[in-house]
Amino acid sequence: MEDWKTKISVLWLITEGAFLAHQVLALIQPGVIARIMAGEVEGLKIGSGLILLFAVLFLVPLIMAFLSLTLKDSMNRWANITVGAVFAILWCVDLIEVAETTSAGVTLMILLTVVAPALIVWYAWRSKQKA
User: Considering the entire predicted model, what is its pTM?
Assistant: First the structure.
């Protein structure tokens, strides 16, 4: 029965990798570095709140990868369903906002950050059916 936990943990790591790749690919687009140096990222003013938000977005998938292997089944399911759904929705909104204005590579990475958490929710939900 541990198989679903391993799959979910790997999917969280894939989510993290896709998010990191998205950030790197976004940085190498023309004009992005200049906007960052001017104090703006994705239309938002860079400040401590925005930096904290990005730190949380980087840390949550890593923490969830660990918790997916260590939490008891019921808590594990609900944590993954809840956090996975939040991340899937968050990245889906980002995908809709930037799909037309960014490169295909960045769009592909954002798409992966939507698909992986959606699969997390699906595997966590299916594990409930098996228990």
Answer: 0.89
